[in-house]
Amino acid sequence: MISKKEIEHIANLSKLKFNKDEIEGFAEKFSEIINYVEKLQEVDTKGVETTYQVNPNTQFMREDNVLESFSNEEALSNAPDKQYGYFKLPKILD
Amino acid sequence: MAYKTIIGLEIHSELMTNSKIFCNCTTEFGGDINTHCCPVCLGLPGALPVINKKVVEYGIRAGIAFHSDIARETKMDRKNYFYPDLVKGYQISQDNIPLCSGGFIEVEKEDGPKEIRIRRIHIEEDTGKSVHSEDGGSLLDYNRSGVPLIEIVTEPDMNSPEEVKEFLEKLKATLEYIEVSDVKMEEGSLRCDVNINVVEEETGVKTSITELKNLNSFKAVVKALEYEEKRHIELLKEGKENLKETRRWDEVNNETIVMRVKEGAADYRYFPEPDLVKIEIEEEWIESIRKNLPELPHDKKERFMKEYDIPEYDAGVLTQSKYLAAFYEETVKYSDDPKQVSNWIMGDVLRRINDEEIEIKDLKFTSKDLGELLKLIEDGKISNNIGKKVLRDMFDTGKSPSTIVKEKGLIQISDEGALKEIVEKVIKNNEQSIMDYKNGKNRALGFLVGQVMKETRGKANPQLANKLILEIIDEK
């Protein structure tokens, strides 16, 4: 079971706000999903190493070369707000 | 009551690669705002990271230098948190399979060496930098976003601020030696977070851990730790409980200030980075990195003892930093007396460097200049004392020793004829000293040599003056 408190915690980590009904709804749906995958817990995995990748490939590593970057204008071309060449954001309170 | 301080460190060090960890943008420090950026390091949708081989290599180098186990298979993970300096809402880092595990750094203690254990070394990307705008907004520069870092985590094995300083100096010197980072705390290429608490040894009562941030020099680390050590002991004495919190060092008021109280463990929801697959590290690659590793401080120290026949203490001091060691080796080339070179560098040169809080790289004169100065002394052209004066001038003006000697007329008087005249004059004015000497007071001879040195403003060759005085007295 996923509690309302856990939902609030997850929402908080994602910087999202929900009303009471929504939180209750999520708690229910999250619980359903968790219960569904809970089935996997029945498999005996003793002595089996954690699988973190099913793809058999290994990572290609590139050489340490510098290529051209964006100009300042290009870098900022999608920015909703900018100032002195910086991306501008509302004040951060944390 | 006896108290034991427990300190562990987390060190971030920027790697000196040419390009960033997951894209080809330059890692160069500074540069115009937001001009070292591309879709990858700006976190634009659809951009894919490709790992820089050099970053993995430098991480392995550090692991070898610190005696860690190098993973033969490792992976990158997503560390999720929201902060504007983090473009993607996650940092690509390493969680449960770090590149290097275990290891240690040895620090010298009065009662012998002590091993400070390293828990892990992993690779990750740096964040951007934010500044505050005058109208209350936040301004972001992402030039640093994606610059490669290694994070080195120690076990809580340090028990005093002094030990931490020793550890950091060793760590810094080694990272410099193996040429993976330029470790400048002022420029932020070396950053250090500290965890400290204190335990009352008899009862086992502990304070909660305090994390210290914003420490931008070794001095700040030591001062902040001294402050915290006292604060924690005070808490134990008063039987007060403290909360687990993060504090920062306030350099102006010399105190630590609470930044935030930590409620529970941070929840970063790590998971394997889906945009990168596992990294395989071949044994041969590790071996070739090991073989090509630049000489480490310990090996250099042993070599100095053998090659230059200098005492262990000297070799230890001279190999503290790569730059100092190089300076010594360069200087020795111009001198016939390696021990003499060591004496000068450990004495007058290092004293001045420490007093002025500069580094060997900042000197106005070169190792060749110092070598030339020592040669002038070895050849008897100037006395030791004049040599010290010339060195002071070299520190101030950066002029070559021969120029200073010439300009100030400091060449030692080694000409018998010229010196004899002065000696005769001194003897004439100090009849009493001659009597004293003849009556067995040997000190009188020293006084007379001193007078000759005074007459010549230190330029007389003291051995010659000594000899001439004795000759003249004998004649009398």
Secondary structure blueprint with pairings:
The complex is a heterodimer of chains A (94) and B (476).
Chain A: H1 4-13, H2 20-38, H3 72-76, E1 82-83, E2 86-89
Chain B: E1 3-14, H1 53-65, E2 69-70, E3 73-74, E4 77-80, E5 90-93, E6 100-101, E7 104-109, E8 112-125, E9 129-132, E10 138-141, E11 148-154, H2 161-177, E12 190-200, E13 210-213, H3 218-237, E14 245-250, E15 255-261, E16 271-272, E17 279-280, H4 283-291, H5 297-308, H6 312-318, H7 322-332, H8 338-356, H9 367-378, H10 384-397, H11 401-408, H12 416-429, H13 431-438, H14 443-455, H15 462-475
Parallel strand pairs in B: 13-14
Antiparallel strand pairs in B: 1-11, 1-12, 2-6, 3-17, 4-5, 4-16, 6-8, 7-8, 8-11, 9-10, 12-13, 14-15
Helix pairs in contact in B: 2-3, 5-6, 6-8, 7-9, 9-10, 12-14, 12-15, 13-14, 14-15
Quick take:
Chain A is mainly α and 94 residues long. Chain A has helices at residues 4-13, 20-38, 72-76, and strands at 82-83, 86-89. The radius of gyration of chain A is 23 Å and the shape is flat.
